[in-house]
């Protein structure tokens, strides 16, 4: 305590006051009893002040030690031991600050883990087509390769390049949405335009696989970014078509009410494995029934786009209520007209 400048100054002033009072008492010839009484009061005040300050500085030292422990990574520190006066207020504020810093530290750690996992997943997804491309390139360099095989390998090479390009584009789009730098031009669009544009790239595939389309056009307006929304719905349609056998069907139902606009995309495939459903929209997650060329990014992109436009998406199976047989899979998309 003596090392504390504030306490030294207080002690100095008390000594000065005692000397001054002593001098005054002697000058005015005050009796000894009065002198002793005044001196005793001053000494008592000094003793009380000393012990009060000592207790206060002990609490400050304790608080300082607790802060030091927190800085060294000890998360079990309780700052509520100071329960009165300014120190209680200070310890309460420090407790809030450390709690806030701890939350931010945990969030940063989670982000680092997620980044590491994402880098691993991306490298894994790129490795497969790159390995294939290396093999195909070696084959193409062979002088004995017949022309028909050469054309086949070139097609494989183009397919691998297209896959890499799609992966990179999808990841960039998700990153922009996550960073809130993606530009959504929200304006009034027609539901029929959204569905028609989403189906455009799949007409030939559906014709080749003899997949029938069940879509009853219900034309109403909703406020969305058309291009981004087409990207999302098209990814759902693509997923359904990949899991629908030749001769199957794709069903799209749309509806509108005072709360939300709904799009149901359904197929007649094998449906989802139950344990996969909670993770279907996670990046790079591939379910048990995923196709061999699946990357696991399409549904994650669809969810990001939908959520960014005040929407929700759920996946479920369609059942025959009498037999319990799975009749297909269903994506339920809802765009809410107010914040949910």
Q: What does it look like?
A:
With 340 residues, the chain is an alpha+beta fold. The chain folds into 3 domains: 5-77; 103-178, Helix Hairpins (Orthogonal Bundle); 187-336, Histidine kinase-like ATPase, C-terminal domain (Heat Shock Protein 90, 2-Layer Sandwich), CATH 3.30.565. It is 57% helix and 14% strand. It has 8 helices and 7 strands, in the order ααααβααββαββαββ. The protein has helices spanning 5-27, 32-71, 85-140, 147-178, 191-199, 203-208, 226-242, 298-308, and strands spanning 187-190, 212-215, 221-224, 249-256, 260-267, 311-319, 326-336. The strands form 2 sheets. It has a 5-stranded mixed beta sheet with strand order 2-4-5-7-6, covered by helices on one side. A two-stranded antiparallel sheet has the order 1-3. α3 runs antiparallel to α4 (147-178). The two termini are 58 Å apart. The model has no long low-confidence stretch (mean pLDDT 81). It is a multi-pass membrane protein. The chain crosses the membrane at residues 7-27, 33-52. GO terms for molecular function: phosphorelay sensor kinase activity. Its EC number is 2.7.13.3. This is histidine kinase.
CATH class of the largest domain: Alpha Beta
Q: What is the total number of structural domains?
A: 3
Rounded average pLDDT: 81
**Number of DSSP strands?**
7
Strand order in the largest sheet: 2-4-5-7-6
Structural class: alpha+beta
Radius of gyration: 37 Å
CATH superfamily of the largest domain: Histidine kinase-like ATPase, C-terminal domain
CATH A-level architecture of the largest domain: 2-Layer Sandwich
Distance between the termini: 58 Å
CATH topology name of the largest domain: Heat Shock Protein 90
Largest sheet: 5 strands, mixed
Strand content: 5-15%
Shape: elongated
Order of helices and strands: HHHHEHHEEHEEHEE
Task: List the total number of helices.
Answer: 8
Q: Residue ranges: pLDDT <50 for 5 or more in a row?
A: none
Proportion of helical residues: 55-70%
Membrane topology: Multi-pass membrane protein
Enzyme class: transferase
Keywords: Kinase, Membrane, Phosphoprotein, Transferase, Transmembrane, Transmembrane helix, Two-component regulatory system
Protein name: histidine kinase
């Amino acid at each position: 305590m003596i090392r504390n400048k504030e306490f030294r100054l207080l002690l100095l002033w008390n000594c000065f006051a005692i000397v001054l009072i002593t001098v005054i008492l002697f000058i005015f010839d005050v009796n000894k009893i009065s002198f002793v009484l005044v001196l005793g009061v001053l000494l008592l005040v000094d003793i009380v002040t000393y012990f009060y300050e000592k207790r206060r500085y002990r609490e400050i030292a304790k608080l300082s030690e607790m802060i030091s422990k927190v800085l060294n990574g000890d998360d079990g520190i309780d700052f509520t031991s100071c329960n009165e006066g300014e120190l209680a207020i200070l310890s309460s504020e420090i407790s809030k600050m450390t709690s806030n810093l701890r939350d931010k530290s945990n969030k940063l750690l989670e982000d680092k883990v997620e980044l590491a996992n994402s880098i691993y997943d991306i490298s894994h997804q790129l490795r497969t087509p790159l390995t294939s491309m290396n093999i195909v390139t070696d084959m193409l360099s062979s002088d004995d390769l017949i022309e028909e095989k050469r054309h086949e390998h070139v097609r494989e090479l183009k397919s691998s390049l297209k896959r890499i390009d799609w992966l990179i584009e999808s990841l960039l789009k998700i990153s922009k949405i996550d960073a809130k730098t993606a530009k959504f031009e929200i304006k009034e669009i027609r539901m029929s335009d959204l569905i028609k544009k989403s189906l455009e790239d799949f007409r030939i595939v559906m014709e080749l696989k003899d997949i029938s389309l069940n879509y009853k056009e219900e034309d109403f307006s909703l406020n969305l970014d058309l291009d981004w929304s087409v990207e999302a719905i098209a990814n759902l349609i693509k997923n359904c078509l990949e899991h629908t056998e030749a001769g199957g069907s794709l069903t799209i139902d749309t509806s509108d009410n005072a709360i939300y606009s709904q799009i149901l995309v359904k197929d007649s495939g094998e449906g989802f494995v139950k344990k996969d459903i909670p993770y279907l929209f996670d990046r790079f997650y591939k379910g048990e029934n995923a196709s061999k060329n699946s990357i696991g990014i399409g549904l994650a992109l669809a969810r990001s786009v939908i959520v960014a436009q005040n929407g929700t998406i759920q996946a479920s199976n369609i059942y025959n209520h009498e037999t319990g047989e799975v009749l297909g899979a269903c994506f339920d998309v809802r765009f809410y007209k107010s914040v949910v």
